[in-house]
Amino acid sequence: MEKDMSAMTQDETAPHYLDNAEAAAFLKLSPRTLEKQRVRGGGPAFRKFGRRVVYALSDLQSWADQRRYNSTTQAELAARG
What is d(CA 72, CA 16) in angstroms, rounded to the nearest whole number? Predict the structure, then answer.
């Protein structure tokens, strides 16, 4: 059964944002790795609110899902681009 969008609470419709440390923990990466990826590219999409960098949970999940491989060979070929 589909939910009526008007009946959803704000918590169900609002994106959940994580700071750098929380996003790194979610992805099992170091916070420094995410910082480097923001500068060099190749990391998950992020948002800036003033000086604050945040990641939407849905963007982190999508980025992780794009890195799903069935073999190490497949992962190596993807890394070579």
Answer: 32
